């Protein structure tokens, strides 16, 4: 039996992912050691391998088949737009992709003038404004603290993730439009889905039974 390789998104989703795998008997103790610099972890008994990667890199590993399976946020799947199968909504990591800004920016969304949109997700923002709203906007790519942009006058609005809404509230901003709900998803390489059909189907069924 060959090894099945998992690429798991680092950060917020990692601990929930490991917790969920543990519930179905898939464990990887070594991975919990935060001080370790080791990059790949093997479960010899189950013939599984695991590695953690930056979220946006997970779909890349899966498309190229370097990982058979990935666990990553729906936001990242939409943004990266890789060739892969999305097979399961894991439910955790729930949040929303939204257009946000000060209340006063509502007039810019309703009006037809050119506006600036700051975001870590340029492809999601383009798809929303160009294809769904049929509006031309200037997209400004940022890498974090997106809420700063309308405060300091870099953009009129932002496209960003909202979970509890605290970051928006604390900065005098609000949700102006909801784009889509998000959560962690399991993605599978297109060839692996055929070659390892039985093992992957069993894994999906096991995961479904504990979600
Ligand atoms: N409040 C939240 N903010 C951001 N992402 C969230 C939130 N709640 C759930 N998520 C999900 O967690 C995923 C990964 O979170 P992570 O902490 O790695 O993101 P990040 O802050 O964008 O990473 P980085 O710090 O490397 O820029 C997101 O892609 C998203 O699907
Ligand atoms: O609705 P909330 O519960 O406040 O969560 C949303 C915030 O969390 C994320 O930022 P993150 O903490 O990842 O920092 P970053 O902005 O530097 O990416 C996201 O980009 C929002 O800023």
From TrEMBL:
InterPro entries: ATP_PRibTrfase_cat, ATP_PRibTrfase_CS, ATP_PRibTrfase_HisG, ATP_PRibTrfase_HisG_short. CDD domains: PBP2_HisGs. Its EC number is 2.4.2.17. Gene3D superfamilies: Periplasmic binding protein-like II. Keywords: Amino-acid biosynthesis, ATP-binding, Cytoplasm, Glycosyltransferase, Histidine biosynthesis, Nucleotide-binding, Transferase. Pathway: Amino-acid biosynthesis; L-histidine biosynthesis; L-histidine from 5-phospho-alpha-D-ribose 1-diphosphate: step 1/9. GO terms for biological process: L-histidine biosynthetic process. Its main location: cytoplasm. Residues 56-208 form the ATP phosphoribosyltransferase catalytic domain. One of its GO terms (cellular component) is cytoplasm. It catalyses: 1-(5-phospho-beta-D-ribosyl)-ATP + diphosphate = 5-phospho-alpha-D-ribose 1-diphosphate + ATP. One of its GO terms (molecular function) is ATP phosphoribosyltransferase activity. It is found in: Cytoplasm. Lacks the C-terminal regulatory region which is replaced by HisZ. Heteromultimer composed of HisG and HisZ subunits. NCBIfam families: hisG. Catalyzes the condensation of ATP and 5-phosphoribose 1-diphosphate to form N'-(5'-phosphoribosyl)-ATP (PR-ATP). Has a crucial role in the pathway because the rate of histidine biosynthesis seems to be controlled primarily by regulation of HisG enzymatic activity. PANTHER family: ATP PHOSPHORIBOSYLTRANSFERASE, ATP PHOSPHORIBOSYLTRANSFERASE ATP-PRTASE. Belongs to the ATP phosphoribosyltransferase family. Short subfamily. This is ATP phosphoribosyltransferase. It comes from Blautia hydrogenotrophica (strain DSM 10507 / JCM 14656 / S5a33).
């Amino acid at each position: 039996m060959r090894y099945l390789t998992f690429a798991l998104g680092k950060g917020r989703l990692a601990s929930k992912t490991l917790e969920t795998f543990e519930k179905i008997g898939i464990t990887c103790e070594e991975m919990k050691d935060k001080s370790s610099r080791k990059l790949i972890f093997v479960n010899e008994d189950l013939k599984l391998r695991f590695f953690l990667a930056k979220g946006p890199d997970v779909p890349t590993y899966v498309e190229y088949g370097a990982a058979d399976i990935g666990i990553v946020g729906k936001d990242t799947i939409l943004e990266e737009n890789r060739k892969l199968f999305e097979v399961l909504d894991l439910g955790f990591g729930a949040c929303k992709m939204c257009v946000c800004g000060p209340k006063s920016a509502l007039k810019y969304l309703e009006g037809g003038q050119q506006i600036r949109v700051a975001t870590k997700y340029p492809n999601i923002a383009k798809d929303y404004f160009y294809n769904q709203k049929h509006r031309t906007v200037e997209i400004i790519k940022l890498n974090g603290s997106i809420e700063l942009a309308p405060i300091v006058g870099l953009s009129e609005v932002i496209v960003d993730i909202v979970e509890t809404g605290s970051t928006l509230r604390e900065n005098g901003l609000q949700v102006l439009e909801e784009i889509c709900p998000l959560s962690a998803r399991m993605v599978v390489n297109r060839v692996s889905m055929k070659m390892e059909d039985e093992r992957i189907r069993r894994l999906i069924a096991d995961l479904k039974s504990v979600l």
